[in-house]
Amino acid sequence: xxxxxxxxxxxxxxxxxxxxxxxxxxxxxxxxxxxxxxxxxxxxxxxxxxxxxxxxxxxxxxxxxxxxxxxxxxxxxxxxxxxxxxxxxxxxxxxxxxxxxxxxxxxxxxxxxxxxxxxxxxxxxxxxxxxxxxxxxxxxxxxxxxxxxxxxxxxxxxxxxxxxxxxxxxxxxxxxxxxxxxxxxxxxxxxxxxxxxxxxxxxxxxxxxxxxxxxxxxxxxxxxxxxxxxxxxxxxxxxxxxxxxxxxxxxxxxxxxxxxxxxxxxxxxxxxxxxxxxxxxxxxxxxxxxxxxxxxxxxxxxxxxxxxxxxxxxxxxxxxxxxxxxxxxxxxxxxxxxxxxxxxxxxxxxxxxxxxxxxxxxxxxxxxxxxxxxxxxxxxxx
Length: 382
Hints:
One of its GO terms (cellular component) is Golgi membrane. This protein has helices at 2-26, 37-64, 68-79, 90-105, 110-181, 186-215, 217-271, 274-277, 280-287, and strands at residues 325-329, 348-352, 361-366, 369-374, 378-380. The chain is α+β, with helices and mostly antiparallel strands. A 5-stranded antiparallel beta sheet has the order 4-3-2-1-5, with no helix packed on it. Helix 2 packs antiparallel against helix 5 (110-181), helix 4 packs antiparallel against helix 5 (110-181) and helix 5 runs antiparallel to helix 6. The longest helix has 72 residues, at 110-181. The protein is elongated and about 115 Å long. The protein starts with a helix and ends with a strand. The model is unreliable at 264-293 and 295-310 (pLDDT under 50).
C-alpha cells in the first residue's frame, strides 16, 4: 500500500510538472525544445497520410455499400469478430422479382420470355457486383484499415510518449536554470544536472524510436499504391463484365424483338375484323410500341421490289427526299455480309427506312458507303 501511495504521488508530481511546462509554453513563459526540420516533415507527412487514408477508406465503403444501415451492421459484426451474413445484391433481388413475374405472366409469352432474359442478366450483374465488393474489401479496404488500426495507433502512442519526454526535458532545463541562478544551492544544482542528463537520454531514445516509425510511412505508401492498382484492376474487370453482359442482352432482345412483334401482329390480325386484316399499316400502328422511328417513304424511284422481300442491293438504294435522320452509333458492329454496313461506336451516320423493311433494321449511309444497320445499335437524333 505504501508503494502504491508513493507511486501515485510520484505520478501526480510528474503530471503536474508536465502540465505546468505545457501551460507556460503556451503563454510564452517557458522555452520549448524544437524538433529538427526533417522530423517535423515526417510528422506532417504522417498526419497527412492518416487523414487522407481515413477519407479514402470511408468513401470507398460508401461506394461499395451505399446503404448506411448495412454499413453500420457490417461494422458491428466486425467489432464483435463475427462473420458478416451474406446479403443479396440489388441486381440479384431484381432478377428474383423478374423471374417470379415471368412465371405469373406466363414464361411462354413474349413479355414473360423477355423478363426471364433480363432477369438472368440482372442476376449475372449482381453476382459480378458481389465478386467486385469482395475483392475490393480484401485487396484495398483491409490494408487501409490495418494501417489505421495498427501502424497509426503505434505511431500515435510513441508520439505521445515523445511529447511527454520533451515536456520532462524542458521542465528539467527550467529547474536547472533556476538552480544556477540561485546562490548556495550547489547540491540542488547537481541533482538538476543529473536529472537533465537522464531526461535528455530518454528523450533522444524516444525521438529515435518515433523517427523510425515515421520513416516507415514511405513503405506504407508503397503498400497502398500496390493495393490501389489491385482495386482499379478489380473495378475494371467488374465494369467490363457488366458491359459484356448488357451487350449480350441487347443482342438477344434485338434478335427476338422482330419475332415478338411479328407474333403480336399475327395474333391481332386473326382476331380482328376482315376490314382491319386487310390494312397492315393500321395493325402495325396499333401494336408497335411508341419508339423513335424513321418515316417510311411510300414510293422511292429506283428501289426494286426485292427490298420488300428482304433482299437489299445497297448500290440500288437511293435515299428518300424526306424522312432521313441522323443517328449516333452506340456500339461497334461488324457487318455480316455485303448488304450490311459496319459501324464504329460514337460515329454519326444518316439513316432511313424503306417500304417492307424489317422494323429492326434501317438503311445507313456514311459518305459513299451504304448498307443495312440494326436499330438497337443506334441512338436516333431529332
